[in-house]
UniProtKB/TrEMBL annotation:
CDD domains linked to this entry: KH-I_PEPPER_rpt1_like
Domain K Homology: 191-264
Name recorded for this polypeptide: K Homology domain-containing protein
GO terms of biological process kind: cell division
Family, as annotated: Belongs to the cyclin family. Cyclin U/P subfamily.
Swiss-Prot/TrEMBL keywords: Cell cycle, Cell division, RNA-binding
MF terms in GO: protein kinase binding; RNA binding
Lineage of source species: Eukaryota, Viridiplantae, Streptophyta, Embryophyta, Tracheophyta
Protein species of origin: Oryza meyeriana var. granulata
Amino acid sequence: MTTGEDAAAVPRVVAILSSLLQRVAERNDAAAAGPRQQQAQAVSAFQGLTKPAISIGGYLERIFRFANCSPSCYVVAYVYLDRFLRRRPALAVDSFNVHRLLITSVLTAVKFVDDICYNNAYFARVGGISLMEMNYLEVDFLFGIAFDLNVTPAAFASYCAVLQSEMAYLEQPAAVDLPRLHCCPWPGWPGDSVFRLVVPVLKVGSIIGRKGELIKRLVEETKARVRVLEGPVGATERIVLVSGKEDPGLELPPAMDALMRVFKRVSGITDGAAEGTQAATAPGVCAARLLVPGAQAINLIGKQGASIKAIQEGTGATIRVISIECYSNSRSQH
């Protein structure tokens, strides 16, 4: 357990990342009620036989105290972990594998990011595993991410924004006991809908309004939580976090209602009910960009693209699923 002085020295990113992964592990532990043998065979390199006694938060703090990693290493480790899990969708992060995944992703990140780092033998002692296992995990992890170690500034900023939204959600009272389902989980679980909409900076004013009047009215009318997250200096876009409890008695869930209203404002569509007009005016083409966890994207696409094809045929809309790195790279080239 850390003292008050030690805790104050721990970067915020360590606490945010540990909180996020703790909820992932707890949710997947609860979901894995059946036999674990088949899953353990598929990911035997990282799957432990028992749950470690140390918590995820305590484990990350231990790594921070003894490995002397820079704070940016934890963001890069998060990027690597996301890449690894997207390539292995059958792997669910739980209490049996999260510690090994963490020590390996941090080890990989510190070697790539920091100028000076400890060797594998030292990291093995910090992580509580043998040197042989540490070496094996590192090799398996590198092959798991196809040796894709480069993280562009745009991609780094995007993952920082995801962690920032996690921090923003944790600061709200409703976030205390909401487990996450995926590695890069949006705050929430069945019963709590969450959306992240990417909007241009110049359109943020149409959401907030003068002195916050519009966003305040939006929250009051929809009963959803709406928050515009801060972005890196010079960023041309912001993430709007929309979340709300599901209500079976409503025709449209609060979060979906708020999301549609935000989208209409950003796209310049006039809502007749809200503005006192009878018709909506809109540009010829409307585009919405949502940030979606990799595991949810797989469900959206469906087997051989069947699900996404059915949605496009039923709505007439065009849907593209791209990775956050590809999106960040395309934005940085413009």
